[in-house]
Each structure stands twice: as structure tokens, then as C-alpha cells.
């Protein structure tokens, strides 16, 4: 069992399917509890799926100066009943409970502590998540955020950090932030004032992301937002911490280089020789490590996501050749620009 205090250095490893929780009814406080839980488990040790929160940490997560027993009972009941849809495609619904156990008890000093154990169904999304793809970020970044929109925007920016500059349609962004149903936001000025600008202000003040956005019009109306991440604060440091942790847990002989990791992401359906060519093309696109940490692998995950979308429409018999074509087109596009 892992004892928890809210440490600035704790790192969250969140699997990509858990991004679908932006559509759930989870409160910002419950999302922070989940992030804290994820930061305290070892994603390679599913046998250690229980985390103990001291009362002070639990109070801090829910912003109580002192959490009374009735409120504590209510939160525990709600956490154990969290029922969410974590579907990996639009062709399914996968309703699971996140936690099978939510218990409070007094320790030997008479102080309350909270015990959370993830459900067997949730373990798929919490442990050994390399094949699912995942995000890594400092827990402290999300604990400081006071707006659910800012929290979801932070995850979106984190997920796209390797792209540096990209655009997204207004409708898609509203869907990501789970606010498309709010009628007043149909007017862009309201959406900009109440969501975009507030998110930007809070994220710049409280996290290690520095970003900006510009609007793109189609005729008289704003149709897209273009994001630009000018720096990615401490990502290299985060990556170094995670890699150091992995070095301590694994024998040096089984550590993988970038190409081995990329092969494993395809379940070794692409051989190392072809992957070397793909890796060299990514290097030519100037997707380097540098301040982006694991940028090359993240970019390869992005390409794999594009392949998965294409596979829904047609059969791809030679995945390596298909990926090479995508990269060559990106390379030529860059030359044209």
C-alpha cells in the first residue's frame, strides 16, 4: 500500500483511454483524486493497486479546511460508485467502476486516512499501459487548477505538445472541453471570454505550459483555433525522472532504445529494419528529443493514430509502407512551405 502526500514531484501516467473522462460527470475534485491515485501507483506493478491518502491530503484535494465525517462518508460513497464510459472507439460503450474499494479508517495515531483500490476492470487502463499510449505530467500542474475547463485544456495541450503548432475547429475544441451543449457559447465572443481566455490565464499562471492561440476565420465567422506551444517547461525533467525510475526497476539488459519501443507499439508487426527507416524519416522532420523529451516516440504514436483512423475505412496490408508514405508526404510538405 502506498501512503500519499501531495508532492510537487509526483508524476501522473495517464493512459490515452482515460482522456475520454472529459465526457463524464466527474467533478474537478474527483478528477484530481484520480490523478493523485495514478501518480502514486507503479504502472508496472498491478499487484500494488491500493493507495492510502492521509486525511490532510484528502482535505486538500477537496479544498476543505477540515473534512467532517458526514462529508467524508459522502465522498467515499461517490468515489466507489464512479461509473464511467471508457470506450476505445465510437463503436462501443464500456462502462466500468474506477474504484472497487473506498474506505476510511483511523491510523494508530487516531487520524483518519482514506484507502482507494481500483477495480479489476479499471486495471486495464491503469497498469502496463504502454500499448494504449499515455501522457505524463507533473501532478502539481493539475492540482493547482480551479477550473474544469482549464484542467481539460491542460490535458489537451499535453497530448499535443509535440506538434508545437496546430489548428482545431471550434466545434471539436468545444467537444474536447465538454462545453458544446452550453447555448451561450454558440457566440464565439462568449466562448472566448468565458473559456479560452480564462483557461489561458490560469494555465500560464499555474502550470509549466506556455502557449498562445490565434483565431482563424471562414468568412465573417471564427471557424478554427490555432495553438502554439512556445516552450514545454519541465518535460525533459519529467522524462528524465520517469526514465530514472524505470532504470531502477529494470535490468539494463532489457531496456529498449527508441526503435525497440516503436516496434513494441506496433506489437512487433513492423520489423526493426523497416522501423529504422521510419525513425530516420522522423529525424529528417526535425522531431528531436531536446526540450520535447520523448518527442520522436510521441510523434510516432501520433502517426499510428492516423493509421488506425485510416484502417477503419480500408485494409492496410503493409503498415510500414503506409507509415513511410505519410512521413514522406510530411517531409515534402515541409519542403514546399
Description:
By secondary structure, this protein is an alpha+beta fold. Helix content is 45%, strand content 20%. The chain is built from 13 helices and 11 strands. It has helices at 28-40, 55-61, 69-80, 123-126, 139-143, 148-159, 170-176, 188-206, 235-249, 258-265, 272-284, 295-311, 319-336; strands at 2-4, 11-15, 50-54, 83-85, 95-97, 99-106, 112-118, 134-138, 165-169, 209-218, 221-232. Strands 1-3-7-6 form a 4-stranded mixed beta sheet. A 3-stranded antiparallel beta sheet has the order 9-11-10. A two-stranded antiparallel sheet has the order 2-8. Helix 6 (148-159) crosses helix 8, helix 10 crosses helix 11 and helix 10 (258-265) packs parallel to helix 12. It is globular, with a radius of gyration of 21 Å. It starts with a strand and ends with a helix.
Give me a quick take on this structure.
Helices cover 45% and strands 20% of the residues.
Terminal-residue CA separation? 54 Å
- The mean pLDDT is 81
Strand order of the largest sheet: 1-3-7-6
Contiguous uncertain segments of 5+ residues? 250-255
Order of helices and strands: EEHEHHEEEEHEHHEHHEEHHHHH
Number of strands: 11
State the secondary-structure class.
alpha+beta
What is the molecular shape? globular
Number of H- or I-type helical stretches: 13
> Main beta sheet, described?
4 strands, mixed
Q: In percent terms, what proportion of residues is strand?
A: 15-25%
Helix content: 40-55%
Radius of gyration: 21 Å
